[in-house]
Amino acid sequence: xxxxxxxxxxxxxxxxxxxxxxxxxxxxxxxxxxxxxxxxxxxxxxxxxxxxxxxxxxxxxxxxxxxxxxxxxxxxxxxxxxxxxxxxxxxxxxxxxxxxxxxxxxxxxxxxxxxxxxxxxxxxxxxxxxxxxxxxxxxxxxxxxxxxxxxxxxxxxxxxxxxxxxxxxxxxxxxxxxxxxxxxxxxxxxxxxxxxxxxxxxxxxxxxxxxxxxxxxxxxxxxxxxxxxxxxxxxxxxxxxxxxxxxxxxxxxxxxxxxxxxxxxxxxxxxxxxxxxxxxxxxxxxxxxxxxxx
Length: 294
What we know:
Layout: E1 11-18, H1 26-42, E2 47-49, H2 63-69, H3 77-89, E3 92-101, E4 104-113, E5 116-122, E6 143-146, E7 149-153, H4 162-170, E8 175-179, H5 195-207, E9 210-214, E10 219-220, E11 223-224, E12 230-232, E13 238-240, E14 249-256, H6 258-262
Parallel strand pairs: 1-2, 2-3, 7-8, 8-9
Antiparallel strand pairs: 1-14, 3-4, 4-5, 6-7, 9-12, 10-11, 12-13
Helix pairs in contact: 1-3
């Protein structure tokens, strides 16, 4: 598909894999993720997003358990396995992993492509008992140049903070990938759309970026997870999902990432990033990041 001037467009088939990792069963979790990645590739996916802590499970009982399940990035066996299938199937993969750097643990996302490790995102905002096991992310909100386009990452609770989305958009992200393990929040009506879905939609709309959120399902050591993975257009409206609340699934969306760059003008007078009142508030929210493309 080309635009009116015949230029090539940034057409991408995104897949979000909604799966149920089992805590402590790392080899089985990784094997299952590889099977599902292969299935998504067979379905034509170019970019694949996996849930948070997809290799280890989520509800740790002790820091010792978390430490034993964590690995280095990019040299640990899980990242190597994901990088190998990315090379074999010409994929870009964003996947949640328990990362170990020396004696320090991070709740991270590994970004790999056909040429290997592209980058790492470390969860900035830790949720609940994660604070017992992990350190807050220390890499900020980087944007990665990938074969499919400019992508950023966030993990689960990061999505409750609009600053992360805005910093990624200001650095030129076309797509924000969210490995996540959403849980019920107080006052949530189980018959309604998950609050996390609403936040993804609002952030995509107010920043003119695509969002792809891959959640897990199941109950682990008494903790229920919500499912409802989804892919959201830069307009804020879902283009795939939400997926089931209970079942494993792969959802797909065909998107043109160029739309996030070209169509930030909502009408003749308004452009979401240009209209920011940087005379009232700091342009980059006080962050030491490089201003991107827009």
